[in-house]
């Protein structure tokens, strides 16, 4: 997996003009049911953050491409849920994934459209939320609003550790004080994301 992500970083660095589009595809696929479970999105985003620090990608470009991919992927999953209907979708798509489905349903019932934002940090349960929102006939505008507004926050939180780590390596030789400050900031972001995910997992325990 690490070598695969390293190869992806190399390809993106050698084809900087297409790097944003590559990130768009990965963040879109991450939001889709079944396919999303196979995408190592955390590793991809950490590598993307490092590319931003190296100047291969402009930060605004990376955030916009990744946010657009996440929002489009959510919209596709939502429309799948609307089109398939509850029973049929459960029978065809959720076979063998009952526990993840139960956790996603619980989050949706408790928090409504806010579950769209929270689900981005739930790992394997994440792709289930948009399709469940469609199955439950959640209002389209409220779903899209929650998806679009939460996407950049999620993107920045995943890009930041990779960016800070890469910047830390660059600054270590010139200014150790700044390097240490960046390292502490990166550690704080990672710890905060871990605590948030842990808290959500406890709340969703079934």
Automatic annotation (TrEMBL):
GO CC terms in record: plasma membrane
Record-linked InterPro entries: DedA-like, VTT_dom
Location within or outside the cell: Cell membrane
TM ranges: 21-50, 62-81, 145-166, 178-197
Keywords: Cell membrane, Membrane, Transmembrane, Transmembrane helix
Membrane-protein topology: Multi-pass membrane protein
Chain segments annotated as coiled-coil in the UniProt record: none
Domain VTT, first and last residues per copy: 40-163
Family the UniProt entry places it in: Belongs to the DedA family.
PANTHER family listed in its UniProt record: INNER MEMBRANE PROTEIN DEDA-RELATED, INNER MEMBRANE PROTEIN YABI
Official protein name in the record: DedA family protein
